[in-house]
Write a structure and sequence with these properties.
Blueprint: H1 2-17, H2 34-37, H3 39-61, H4 65-69, E1 72-79, E2 85-87, H5 89-102, E3 103-118, E4 121-134, E5 140-153, E6 159-167
Parallel strand pairs: 1-6
Antiparallel strand pairs: 1-2, 3-4, 4-5, 5-6
């Protein structure tokens, strides 16, 4: 719980201290055109979407946790829906090994509802749904999470996941 407050505080600080107007004024909502969102936002979104396609393909293959983990920064922090926290790329690699031993990923869908980028940081928010088959039983199910992902562009220009906060979806009314 304390980590969630730290992530939120970090975003409040980032949003209030940027040199151009606040992130919220430059948010690229899903239906908005690139011309309206700005070149930086569009190029970041395109690069991140391309990266996601590679990551999804790696998840579906389920055989390369090292390559999949390369899409995260060395100091990644992930807060999972059960409030457990994963720190660092090496831990992420171990988690992917565990997931690949337990599940086959059939499909991954993302419904991005918010996206913004400035300089070397980008964030996206939405709902991700993982269609998985449990290897022990053969049962299939969808695992859905609401998420906020923070991406960081490294010195080579590659975008990598820096912070991930996932929560169970809100109940439908």
């Amino acid at each position: 719980m304390r980590y969630r407050h730290a992530v939120l505080s970090t975003w409040v600080l980032l949003c209030s201290s940027v040199t151009r107007p606040a992130f919220a004024q430059h948010t690229a909502d899903v239906g908005r055109s690139c011309a309206a969102a700005g070149k930086d936002v569009c190029s970041a979104r395109a690069a991140i979407e391309k990266d996601w396609l590679v990551m999804i393909e790696l998840m579906k293959r389920g055989a390369d946790p090292v390559r999949l983990s390369s899409h995260y920064t060395e100091d990644i922090v992930i807060v999972e829906p059960d409030d457990s926290t994963i720190h660092g790329r090496a831990s992420v690699e171990s988690v992917w090994r565990k997931y690949f031993a337990e599940f086959s990923y059939l499909d991954v869908r993302r419904d991005v509802t918010r996206f913004d980028a400035q300089d070397n940081l980008a964030y996206e928010a939405g709902v991700a749904t993982y269609a998985v088959r449990e290897k022990s039983t053969g049962n299939t199910r969808d695992l859905a999470v609401r998420y906020i992902y923070v991406w960081k562009r490294d010195a080579s220009g590659r975008w990598r996941l820096r912070d991930m906060n996932e929560a169970a979806p809100a109940p439908r009314s």
